[in-house]
Each structure stands twice: as structure tokens, then as C-alpha cells.
Amino acid sequence: MRIIDMASSGFAQQEFEIQRVDHGAPEAGGRIGGVQAGQPLWLAVWTVGKIGARRSDELRAWLSRMRGATRRLLGRDLARPYPLAHITGFARMTLADGSPFTGAAADWSETLDSEGDSRVTLEGLPPGLILSTLDYIGFKWTATEPSVAGTEWRAKVRVVEGGIADPAGTVTVTCEPPVPSCVPPGASAHLDRPACIMALITDQTRLQAIDRRLAVRGGTVAAIQDLRS
Amino acid sequence: MKTIAPAAKAAIARGEAIVTGAVEILSGPAIRLWGGFGAIAIGGESYQGIGDRGLAQQTSGAIGGIAQGVTLTLSGVEPEALALLDADEIKGAPVVIRRLIFAGDGKTLLDAHVFDRGRVDTVTSEETVGGEAAVRVMVESAARGLGRRGERMRSDADQRLINPNDGYFRNTSFAAEKMLYWGGKKPHRVGSVMGGGGSGGFTGGGPSSTVVSH
């Protein structure tokens, strides 16, 4: 399966949130009963603002390449390519043993606490690395599902309670949603440009007409996470 | 009566449960799908995730009403679901539909009880340009099957289709329809159960018993 990187620029607004579908039974009081349908997924809506002609051309070309919903894109939260405290990248950061930090953790593990919160532990980070609220932890693995076998698949989780890596380079943070169960234990956890694989929601994706400046006057690109094992 | 694990019931009571479905279609080869992502094992078998939130959720029923069939909509036309259309012996293949109840973390499977059992009735695929593409599987439970009417009649003509020389019903006028209530709402009068109207008695239909004509 062809996976295309996100359009590098041109978006003015972004929604990047977890989509949870509730079979709710709303009450007048706060005691709302109900169950949730299926596992949570990332849902993104990028809105195109006023852009120049060249940027517009790039965006239209990118959308053409997506071939509707048949190809996948690497969906990213444009606000956090790297953790907030290291937003320009990991240049000159070194691990506890002095080797340069590439962005990937040596190992990761997840425990679910008694309240059902997901506590993700990353090992092999530079001592003192800060994970702030709303940073992301990405996961990469080679898909084994027959239809996409061999493709590098990705998922990401959002840090909702941050932490600082200890002198050994280990940090434990609370994440949402919990790491999907289809992410294999052998997946690589990384902090550099975390992404999840998404498919376009074609009936909500539309670029508006170009005007006399030869640039689109706006548009919307909507995508939903495609999770595979 | 469906037995739901206590932990799952507690999660539902707290409003934290995440539910989805799993479907096992014992065609040749057997197809096992569930509504989440990746493969999970239920009852020793591996189920392939098709990422369909609403899988096996939509059912309806009424006390005393007609048993409803279950329609499974396998949307997105995943390769795994498409295999269904190519499977041998899909017609009438046994289907087991399970409802999966997860804890709020979406990972801890609390319960996977059997929600319905039945047989595949019809399988259709639907494609709308620019819209939905889905494979729909109609599943008939045993109760639904009871509501079907056959075309055989208790008449001389019908009996002679079986064997031209069999004149067992030759003195019988035929009973076109006979209502039997099986597990449904009880009718008000016994007479209407037996279809006898005012005549009363068991209408076995044999030559020697009371015969109801319509």
C-alpha cells in the first residue's frame, strides 16, 4: 500500500482529536448511561486558508496523488512535530552512554493502572528529556495483516500527563488513547515526527475553486486513522 | 437468557464499557471477523479485525413479536469481508454472533458472550459511487425460521404430487393455513390457537378427525 506524507504546508487550521463514538443514553442529570462503540481513533480535519498560487498547486497535486480514499497518508498533529520542550528537534542531545539520540526509544512498555489509565514507559532516552502535555509518542512496526503485510505501519498516542527522563533515560507518562492492542510489543516507539496512518474521508474533503490569483480560496481535508496489525 | 460476565456488567453500569461485535461464519473456509483492529482470540479461534464499529450491533425485537433476523453490514469492503462472497457453501452456513465488551481502556476484553446464532440467508454486496460499499449478510436465527411458511398443503392434490397413487387425502378438503403459536404472545381464545373457530377440538387434519376448511 502506498503511504504518502502529509502536504507540508498550506493548512491554516487543524483539528486533531480522538474520535470516540458513544451509544449514549443522555439524561437530564449528569448520570449519563451508555456504552462506547468500538475502539478510539484519531480524526483530523485540516482547513486550508488563504494561500499563494504555488502552495495551492502543491496542495492540489498532493490531493490528486491521494487518489481519494484508496491511498493512505501519514497524519500528523502539525503543532507537535517534536515534544514541546525540544520543538526544534533533538540536535546535540545524547543518551546516557554518550551516543547521539535519534528520536527512537530503546524500549517501551505499557501498564494499565487500576483506573484504566495507560502508563507508557519509554527507556533509552536522553536524561532530562521532557515530555509535556499533548506531546505524542509514535509507534512504527511492520504490518503483518495479509492485505498490507510488509508495509511500515504507524500509530500514535497523546501524552496527557508529562514527565522528565531520569538519569538512566527512562520516563513514564500517562497517554490517551491507550496504545492500541494491535501494536505489537516489538514495535519501535519514537518521539520524532510521530504520525498515524490515515485515510481521507472523501465526502468531507474538498478544495474550493481557484480564483484569479490562481490559488484555491479554501478547502477542507478530513482524515480518519486506519489501524492495522 | 444471555449470561454476561460480572466484570462486564459492572463496566456497563459504570458507563465505561466499549462494545463491538464478532462474527464467525462457518462457510468453507470459515470466516471470523471482529469489529476492532488486529487479531484477537476468542474461544481458541483467531478473529481478524475489520475496524468496523457497528459490526453486529443493529438488532431489534419485541416481546411477543416476530423474531427478527440480524443483518450484518461489513462496511468498507475489506479484503477479509470480500472473501465471504467467494466462499463455498455460504448459503445456510452456521453463524455465531458475539458481542464483545471491553473495559474503558479498550484493551481488556471482559466478556465475549454469544448474542445470536443462526444461518446465513442471503449475502449481497452494495456499492454506491462516492458513497458506501458494503457486504450485507442476512442471518436467520432458528426462531426466525419458524415463522416461515412452507408451500406444502394438506390436500389431495399435494399428496398426489408426492406419490400419484397416494389417495390418503382424497376425502379431505384442504386446510390452507394453520396458526401455531410457539413461544410468542398467547392469543385470547383457545379456539384461535387451534384454528378451529367454533368447531373446537384438535384439527389434526386426518380423515377421521374434525377438518377445517377455508
Written description of the protein model:
The complex is a heterodimer of chains A (229) and B (214). Helices cover 6% and strands 41% of the residues of chain A. Chain A is mainly beta. Chain A folds into 2 domains: 110 residues, Phosphorylase Kinase, domain 1 (2-Layer Sandwich); 115 residues, Elongation Factor Tu (Ef-tu), domain 3, CATH 2.40.30. In chain A, the strands form 3 sheets. In chain A, strands 1, 2, 3, 4, 13, 14 and 15 form a 7-stranded mixed beta sheet that branches. Chain A is globular, with a radius of gyration of 19 Å. Chain A starts with a strand and ends with a strand. Chain B has 214 residues and is an alpha+beta fold. Chain B is built from 5 helices and 8 strands. The C terminus of chain B is likely disordered. Chains A and B meet through strand 3 of A and strand 1 of B.
The low-confidence parts of chain B are 197-214
Order of helices and strands of chain B: HEEEEEHEEEHHH
Fraction in helix of chain B: 10-25%
Largest sheet data of chain B:
8 strands, mixed
Largest interface: chains, residues each: A-B, 29 and 33 residues
Proportion of β residues of chain A?
Answer: 35-45%
Distance between the termini of chain A: 14 Å
Low-confidence stretches of chain A: none
- Give a short account of the largest sheet of chain A: 7 strands, mixed
The proportion of strand residues of chain B reads 25-35%
CATH architecture of the largest domain in chain A: Beta Barrel
Total number of β-strand segments of chain B? Answer: 8
- Give the helices and strands of chain A as they follow along the chain: EEEHEEEEEEEEEEEE
Features:
heterodimer; A: 229 residues; mainly beta; Phosphorylase Kinase, domain 1; Elongation Factor Tu (Ef-tu), domain 3; 6-stranded antiparallel beta sheet; 1 helix; 15 strands; B: 214 residues; alpha+beta; 5 helices; 8 strands; 29% strand
